[in-house]
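## retry 2 of 3
previous attempt timed out at serialization; input unchanged, resubmitting
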Amino acid sequence: MSIRIYIGNLSQGFNPKEFDTLLKSVSDSIRFKAVLDKETKECRGFGFATTNNEENANLLIQKLHGFEFNGSKLRVELSEKKDSASNKRNSGNLNKKKKRKDFKKIVHSDAPNLEAPDPRWAGELSKLKDLLANQKTPA
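## retry succeeded, writing output
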């Protein structure tokens, strides 16, 4: 099983070969891929390293987290691979067994409801209607 490691706080113009030699000093089995901007093809400031050995992953995190590289301190931590079957943001929900169709859908409309005004504002609305009806100048 491949272990994925997030490496952040890289400079945009960093040298990948120089960074690879740094990773090889920790272990030869570590592969790194920087995340590049689609338009400029420059590093977006982070990337992911992969290794098959958990010991190498922990060693990499220990040695390089906070390590200064090209003038900035690296941020190195374990990364959880995105899984399309489960949304990691909602993994803390207590009601995991509920499906989307179990929830009541509420649709808000901007159209005025001509049947009855909101009872909370009924008194204020009647005062406003009286005020407008008693107005001396036409509105």
